[in-house]
Request: fold
Amino acid sequence: MIEGKANELPDFQVFRTVIKYCLFIIIVPVLSFFSAKTILFDGILRLAPITSSVYSAVVAVIVLHVTLGLYIYRAYTEAEKPEKPVKKD
Reply:
């Protein structure tokens, strides 16, 4: 029973990491779009609505690529780590 739990723990950790990054990849670009549009382009620069939407979309795409890059970097660094031996009592 304990050996089964030890095998499921890394799977759960991987699942939890993937869920966190999925939420991060979805939420952060959407927040960056609306915050850039409202605060920067509409508020400070006072651009036209269509122009501010286009610039905000560009900001959101750049943020999306950065978040995807972070996920890929994390995946490669996790793959290179040697596995720790499991102690059997």
Notes: The chain has a mean pLDDT of 87.
